[in-house]
Design a protein that fits this description.
With 77 residues, the protein is mostly helical. It contains two helices and no strands. The protein is globular, with a radius of gyration of 16 Å.
Length: 77
């Protein structure tokens, strides 16, 4: 994270988010599901796994009923 920090960013030592990323308010269940699916398919698009559920650091396996190494708290809609 220190390596990727832009030189003109003098307020911090690290950069976590990609340049140009901006927060967006989740205003509907459909929008939330779209964001979750986008996140779940990132490892597939990167050719790390064939299906989202196989990425052990993702909630995709949890949503598919698999045992996860990460603890998740479900939210009610």
């Amino acid at each position: 994270m220190k390596y990727y920090k832009k030189r003109h960013k003098t307020q911090s030592e690290y950069q976590v988010w990609q340049e140009g990323s901006h927060p967006e308010m989740i205003i509907s269940t459909d929008m939330l599901n779209q964001k979750i699916n986008y996140i779940h398919f990132n490892p597939v698009k990167a050719d790390f796994v064939n299906i989202p559920e196989d990425w052990k650091y993702s909630s995709a396996g949890y949503y598919a009923g698999r045992v996860s190494i990460i603890e998740f708290n479900e939210i009610e809609m």
